[in-house]
Amino acid sequence: MSEKDCWWKGAIVYQLIPRSFSDGNGDGIGDLQGLTSRLGYLRWLGVEAIWLTPIYPSPLQDGGYDITDFKNIHPELGDLAGFHRFLIAAHSHGMRVILDLVLNHTSHLHPWFQRARWAPKGSTEREVYVWSDDRSRYRDAPVLFRNFETSNWEWDDVAKQYYFHRFLRNQPDLNYENPWVQEQMLEVVDFWIQRGVDGFRLDAVPFLFEEEGTRCEGLKETHSFLKKIRKRVDESGKDILLIAEAIQPVNEASKYLVNDELHGAFNFALTAHLFAAIASGSIHLLSDAICEAQQVAPECSWALPLRNHDELWLGDGHLVSEEVVKMIRAGLHQGHGHWLNWGINRRLAPLLNGDPRANRLMHALLYSLPGMPCLYYGDELGMGDWPGLRDRDPNRTPMAWTPLRNGGFSSAPDPLLVLPPITAPGYDYRVINVEVQKELPGSLLNWHRRMLTCRRLLPALRNGDFQLLESSHPSVLAFVRSNETMTVLVAANLSAAGTSLYLDLSQWEGSRTREVIWGAEYPQANDNWFIYLPSYGFSWWLIGEVDEALVQSNSPMKDS
Ligand code: NOJ
Ligand code: CA
Fold first, then answer.
1. How far, in Å, is the centroid of ligand 2 from the Cα of 53?
2. Would the CA dihedral through 103, 106, 110, 115 be positive or negative?
3. What is the DSSP letter of 57?
4. Is 515 labeled as catalytic in the residue annotation?
5. pLDDT, tens digit, for every residue of 391-449?
6. CA nearest 215: which of 168, 170, 248, 175?
7. Among 66, 201, 252, 286, which is most exposed with the fewest C-beta within 10 angstroms?
8. What lines the ligand 1 site, CB under 6 Å?
9. CA 380 / ligand 2 centre spacing (Å)
10. What is the pLDDT, as a whole number, of residue 547?
11. What percentage of the chain's residues is helix, strand, coil (to nearest 5)?
12. Is 245 designated active site?
């Protein structure tokens, strides 16, 4: 398959938490049945791939990232037959399905861990996890969940040893030095490929192997194992996407983006710079971050999130200045910024002070930059959060579908709901929900849908080259995406003040220019091309003529 044909190149990914999306059987917990019934909505919106956070059996001590059986479905979500029905339905709607795959650890209740702690010290069964007689091993590995844990080691009274855990003490790390572990996880990959999934989001990839005297991140053995997964996936002969979750600066995260390793990785550094740019009104560091991101192998691609089910990472003081971090927290609508382990556990809308113009601008950039835009469920509505909930629950609350009870998420009595639906002032589900926003032509939801429809007609935004343009204004980012069918100019004003400026379009001197979203004709391109961008304004312009036939044949979801 050529690079241009990869289904995931520029695909619109929609991340959802199945427990919080839609409850099909009325027990208060979102499930596969409910999700299947909402596929028409996702297709209507313009989603191309659905990423499900973990759906496996789990005691849910870490939102399902603590798994007890990698080859099954959590009974509250359904079963394997229900998953099959969901997958077939998603495919028949023209959407792909990406599963979360947690490689680094299991739940402490996983049978492998229970067997390990009772097995003799040093036996193969014990060595499925990482053990030590004292806590001095791997002391350079930082504790990640700083709010919950003080050490990466936990004493086990049965095993009479400490076990290693990079996350919660309920999530012991698998021992990848043990070939049995590697083979088991490769079989998990096979299992889900055989069931028809289209891709995997590989959780916490940097941490698979440990080595004394290092931070135990991104070691060469870890890369070698990921290459084994890639080989296995390639051997299936299907176009399976592998995306790395590595919350690291671009120069580290890009190490997974190699021809024979992973196809994609989240660009969390770009996310941090987007928030910093809109908080400070300055694009200086953002444009550097965007340019840096373009240095990866052309076959590989970044996944571009704004928010997700975790904290908002702002780079641990290395990417974004303390002053800007303070500005982001200070701007938070309703209460203070909630700093959890290493970031802010709030949703997009409150982080943008409830301003739909800022929501549109941030998403417009995702929809314009090279990579896979990742939309977090509810952000297409500007859904709010519940800052008082524990851990990362503030941004994991039920999807708002209708103004009816529980936002149409579930018919169950309130106390049974997985999490409380949002009724916070300004974000009440009786106003912010799918049904109401569908009816309002100017709603955020209809804006997202229009943008995604428009984007499908502009394949250069999906797979085109990227060129940053010199901008004469410190708040305006301008760049061009072009492929063989068209050239698209993008300009975005990251400041709350409207602004006019001149762009140098002499490369396209004399070409026709048209604004795409509203369809306005602009003056021919020249070296002093004038534009006005309102507060948080942005636009897409076509430069020159377009090969309409080629555009049509290039656009995915032609019939929608
Ligand atoms: C990253 C996941 O996104 C997060 O939710 C989880 O807590 C950790 N990995 C551990 O699996
Ligand atoms: Ca249910």
1. 16
2. positive
3. -
4. no
5. 999 999 999 999 999 999 999 999 999 999 999 999 999 999 999 999 999 999 999 99
6. 248
7. 252
8. 62-63, 65, 102, 167, 203-204, 245, 309-310
9. 23
10. 73
11. 30, 15, 50
12. yes
Domains assigned to the chain: 3-104+177-454 (3.20.20.80), 111-164 (3.90.400.10), 464-553 (2.60.40.1180)
- The ligand placed nearest to the CA atom of residue 19 is 2
Residue with CA at minimum distance from ligand 1 atom 4? 310
- ∠ CA 438-439-442, nearest 5°, is 80
Which ligand lies nearest to the CA atom of residue 409 in the structure?
2
Q: Could you identify the residue written with the tokens 């340019």?
A: 291
Amino acid code (one letter) for 79: D
What is d(CA 20, CA 286) in angstroms, rounded to the nearest whole number? 33
Ligand 1 atom at minimum distance from 145 CA = 7
pLDDT digits (tens, 9 = 90+) for 355-403: 999 999 999 999 999 999 999 999 999 999 999 899 999 999 999 999 9
Residue 100, strand partner residues: 201
Distance CA 66, CA 170 (A): 7
Ion ligand 2 neighbours (CB, 5 A) are 23, 25, 27, 29, 31
| Assigned token pair, 102 | 């947690």
How many angstroms separate the CA atoms of 154 and 152, rounded?
A: 7
Q: How far is Cα 323 from Cα 442, in angstroms, rounded to an integer?
A: 35
Cα-Cα-Cα-Cα dihedral of 449, 394, 19, 42, to 10°?
0
Half-sphere exposure of 76 (CA within 13 A, CB side): 21
Among candidates 182, 368, 340, 195, which has minimal Cα distance to 274?
Answer: 368
Long-range pairs, 277-281, Cβ under 8 A, ≥24:
277/477, 277/494, 278/352, 278/358, 278/361, 278/362, 278/494, 278/536, 279/324, 279/327, 279/328, 279/331, 280/324, 280/327, 281/474, 281/475, 281/494, 281/495, 281/496, 281/497
Asked whether 108 and 172 are in contact (CB, 8 A), the reply is yes
Q: What is the reported pTM?
A: 0.97
Token pair of 23 as six digits: 């409850």
Q: Which two tokens stand for residue 513?
A: 């220019």
d(CA 328, CA 234): 42
